[in-house]
Amino acid sequence: MSISVKNLSKHYDKQKAVDSISFEAKPGRILGFLGPNGAGKSTTMRMLTGYLEPTSGEAEISGENISTHTIEAKKHIGYLPENTPLYSDMYVKEFLNFIGDAYNLSNLSARVDEVIKKVGLTPEQHKKIGMLSKGYRQRVGLAQAIIHNPAVLILDEPTSGLDPNQLVDIRALIKELGKDKTVVISTHIMQEVEAICDDIIIINKGKIVANNSLEGIKKAHQGSSLEDIFRKLTA
Ligand code: ADP
């Protein structure tokens, strides 16, 4: 199992932002992590990626415990946070070299060229990040997330704020990356889930209220639309 989460919780004072959730995620599948605003999606992702210490519970990434073996676990994770913080004054290649260098990658310049091609950044590769459209900035975010070829990709609302054409392109790219990785993507766009996810988890007020394959959840709700199922479970 690439991701294994057991009774993971994060409390802020009395609020249980994430309340004892458990789940697993497998390679070659894209897991949609859905929930209304404030449900606990980002908090969970930040715990999975080692950026936030859980109040209790455990998460393992490729068999490495993220709290006790953070450095080893992080080697297996590519993370695209919400509102990707990128260095807008840096050139695309300069930035990717900088990130790759932090991972101590050998053949760095060949790897940078490879990821630029993979995420479709070739036409913009000589520009400053600040000059790029939001869609291309997301590609830079994805490039930095995959540069060390991690087994697991955690993408926090990777398509928010993109125009319809950019949306289609980035979704296709995520689908492609999901062929041989374990991908967890948070979103509240049901169309997106239908377009790219194999499995879904719905989280509401810090708790998991559904964990199933996309087909499975529809069957369990007599073929209702995902919108209706989502509304019912998060009301
Ligand atoms: P989502 O990503 O599903 O929109 P979040 O994980 O960002 O939800 O937030 C879950 C809940 O935790 C929200 O109620 C939010 O206000 C609260 N929360 C998140 N971060 C903090 C923090 N640093 N301090 C206090 N409360 C927080």
UniProtKB/TrEMBL annotation:
One of its GO terms (molecular function) is ATP binding. Residues 3-230 form the ABC transporter domain. SMART domains: AAA. InterPro entries: AAA+_ATPase, ABC_transporter-like_ATP-bd, P-loop_NTPase. Keywords: ATP-binding, Nucleotide-binding, Transport. Belongs to the ABC transporter superfamily. This is Multidrug ABC transporter ATP-binding protein.
